[in-house]
Amino acid sequence: MSQWPAQSPAAMNDFYGNPDANHDGRADPAWMKANLVRVKPPYRMKWSWAGDVTTITVHRRCAESLLRALDAVARHFGSQQAIERARMHLCGGAFNFRLMRGGSNLSVHSWGAAIDLDPERNGLGRRYAESLGMMPMAVVEIFAREGWEWGGRWSRPDAMHFQAAASGAAPPRRAPVRASAKGAREALLDQVFSQRSPS
Fold first, then answer.
1. Is the Cα torsion angle 123, 151, 73, 117 positive or negative in sign?
2. Would you give the DSSP letter of residue 70?
3. In b/e form, how buried is each residue of 156-184, taking b as 16+ CB within 10 angstroms?
4. In the chain, which end has fewer C-beta atoms inside a 10 angstrom radius, N or C?
5. For the chain, what are the domain ranges?
């Protein structure tokens, strides 16, 4: 069983809170202030369209897990140069209050519980092929260890997308990896909660 909620509006709202409780089609400022945090990635990242990523805005309940996954990506590749060759420094975004593409429900990005990596090579609807320079399977496995679901296996593939929610469309995920040293866990928590997002 996953630590993350099912990808239904009711389950997402129960777990992450309702980002649009007044139904005005916008993220509620009070919800954003109470639930979103800004985390600093453990390696240099760029927005896929332009500019450096200084922080990534995500929900506080999955922020520590995201940092562990990104830290594991950095350890796996071993250097900034290797990360960039794999294109894992290219971020397409995390929190973004919007509907799912082609749908009527909110995207998991609306709760700040998803991240997109290297969207140029891993576009929505593009059939996955690692041999074409798409998402490295090692990265998929790293996020799976944290319980994050990868969109590359969906019937409408979205290989850039990882989410802290269970759509039911992907195979079961492994249990999350916990930080082994208390000091490492505390350092991650300090990083997460010292960078709260503004209202």
1. positive
2. H
3. ebbbbbbbbbbeeeeeebeebeebeeeee
4. N
5. 9-193
Look up residue 186 and give its two tokens.
């505390």
Count Cβ atoms below 10 Å from residue 29 Cβ, excluding itself.
10
Query: Are the beta carbons of 163 and 113 closer than 8 angstroms?
Result: yes
Tens digit of each residue's pLDDT (9 = 90 or more) over 125-171? 999 998 999 999 999 999 999 999 999 999 999 999 999 999 987 44
CA-nearest of 172, 192, 190 to 66 is 192
- Tokens representing 182 are 């208390």
pTM of the full predicted structure? Answer: 0.83
Distance CA 63, CA 193 (A): 9
- DSSP alpha helices (H): ranges in the chain? 9-16, 29-35, 60-77, 80-85, 137-145, 182-193
